[in-house]
Amino acid sequence: MKISELKDLINQKLNIVSVISNFISLSKKGNNYIGLCPFHEDKNASLTTNETKKIYKCFSCGEAGGIVEFIQKFKKISFMEALKIAATMANIDESEFSFLNKEFKQNFTYDQIKIYDLLDFTNTFYKTNYLKSELARNYAKERKIDSPQIRQRFDIGFADNKTKEYLIENDYQLNELKNAGIINENFNSIINNRLTFGIRNQDGKIVAFSGRDLTNNSSAKYVNSTENLVFKKSSILYNYHNAKDEIFNKKEVYIVEGFMDVIAFYKAGIENVIAIMGVELSSAHINLLKGVKINLFLDNDQAGKIATYKLIKKLANHNNVVSVIKNTYNKDADEILLSQGKEVLIKMLNENKVSAIDFAFNSLFEDFNLNKQKDFNNINEFCRKIDDTFGLAPPSIKNYLTSLIKEKLNFDYKFKASFTPRSFSENKPVYKPKINEKNLLIKLKAEKRNELLIMLLSNPDMVNYFFDDSLKWELLTQGTSDDFYSHYEKNISIKDKSKSDQIKAGIVNFLHKKIYSELSKTYLVDEKQLLDLIKNYVDQNWDYWILKDKENIDTINQIRRITRLLTMSYLDIQKPKRLNTSVFINKLQNIKSLAEACESDEKYIKYLKDKK
């Protein structure tokens, strides 16, 4: 039987509405059934299922497919695994889909299959060794992880100092052991005389091991097997294969630091828990947790606090609701369970949960000592840290934070605007500008300092009113110029009108110098994005309006010169139907020298008229 034939048979035997109803609630509406889409944060019942056509589609996020595709995406498993589950649900005899094992192997290279086989064999060896090792059994008994159920669920074993020899005796080669991460470059076993924890991928296959020191003689408490063709830390969450069903049933997950913490939660009756294994969350990790509430419960030491802060920053620009469990003990979850009992641990999880936003804000507020002394520099650094953490967060989070800052520090804070190109990806290489690049390379970063420039370009009369108390704070919080502001704070009084020309000249010079550096920073964008961005920065109508202004202020003339250069650049690059990369990059490189040339107003007016 072919895969397509098996899929057709599944569709004949199963009702798609009944299948999807096992995972989410559906209600009938006309000829269709609707429900909340599980593949994004849905509040409008965007998922529609058609019983006759045996398909589903979300009209919000676009996810669509049939029975097998829904199971695959909901459980976050491979297509083959989803096909097996659907076939079982349809009561199809296993002999009808035994060929899937062969099909599964066709999805991997020969080397990957060998690694899977070797790691599975090694895991069995470690588990057998555990039963023979008094050292391992005593440690497991002391930590209360010695029950057969726990040892089986978490693949607990013991690696003695003869792992390499045993595997070679069983016809495995040294290069195979090295490729699987069992031995190092010097052909020595990586894990020796340690309690072992098997690390499985989301499909439940052993991909690596971690070894816990039992002698207290090693500087490293844990040692992990090295990355290999089937093990990449950036794509593995420990215990995810055990927890995924519970995670998506409850729409909630607990993130802890290590293996023992995961086991402690399990012993306390909490199964929707995973560990990050000492690495930062990647996009692959976050994708596995899409649409679920995330609770962070890390150690209460300095390293744990830093890790918590990094996780909050990483998760801030995603749609997950993130909370932090405030650990009131200087112990990890396993130690709390052993010393205080599961009731205390569960009570802490329920009662000590705070919003990650509040946690980060209050922690930073305390770190910068703002409860006691609202020092100018501390406020500056505090605002920078807030912006660094939540700069890419949704508007609702930013609005909440600005209200907190208003309440605590009594000024109106505004986040820097930011632009993230659609082509950006963590896994893409960093592009550097090359004249022969097919795509145009340029970066126009829409930060608040650039919005300030636009304001001055379009409203030159506002320059006269620029320096008042309220705008002082805005200039500070947007980080326009540390050096300038430091000089300004020390040497020039805001109220000193006699210094206004000097201040305005300083600001204009600063903005003038910023143009070239801002334009020359690069990342990959397409031509349409480029034109849209430039148009956001400069519109020839602004400059035309400025030219009609009769004020003869040096400051206005300097601002006029800035907008002139940008406008000329913008008008020039619209000439060809398709942009010539080398010509445009050369033009950018000439902006600095053009700025110094100080074109005359007459010549520029003629230029604009010619363009009309």
Give a short overview.
With 612 residues, the chain is of the alpha+beta class.
Fold and architecture overview:
Monomer. Interacts with DnaB. One of its GO terms (molecular function) is DNA binding. Belongs to the DnaG primase family. The strands form three sheets. This protein has a five-stranded antiparallel beta sheet with strand order 1-2-3-4-5, covered by helices on one side. It has a five-stranded mixed beta sheet with strand order 11-10-12-13-14, with helices on both faces. Residues 418-556, 566-581 and 587-609 have low confidence and may be disordered. The protein has 28 helices and 14 strands. Strand 7 and strand 8 form a beta hairpin. With 612 residues, it is α+β, with helices and mostly antiparallel strands. The protein has five domains: 3-105, DNA Primase, Chain A (Alpha-Beta Complex); 110-230, Alpha-Beta Complex (DNA primase DNAg catalytic core, N-terminal domain), CATH 3.90.980.10; 240-361, Dna Topoisomerase Vi A Subunit, Chain: A, domain 2 (3-Layer(aba) Sandwich), CATH 3.40.1360; 368-409, no CATH class; 448-611, no CATH class. Helix content is 51%, strand content 9%.
Key traits:
five-stranded antiparallel sheet; 612 residues; DNA primase DNAg catalytic core, N-terminal domain; five-stranded mixed sheet; Dna Topoisomerase Vi A Subunit, Chain: A, domain 2; DNA Primase, Chain A; alpha+beta; 51% helix
Outline the low-pLDDT stretches. Answer: 418-556, 566-581, 587-609
Can you list the strand order of the major beta sheet? 1-2-3-4-5
Largest β-sheet summary: 5 strands, antiparallel
Cα(first) to Cα(last) distance is 70 Å
Which structural category fits the helices and strands? alpha+beta
Mean pLDDT: 73
Family: Belongs to the DnaG primase family.
Protein name: DNA primase
Zinc finger (CHC2-type): 37-61
InterPro entries: DNA_primase_core_N_sf, DNA_primase_DnaG, DNA_primase_Znf_CHC2, DnaG_bac, DNAG_N, DnaG_primase, TOPRIM_DnaG_bac, TOPRIM_dom
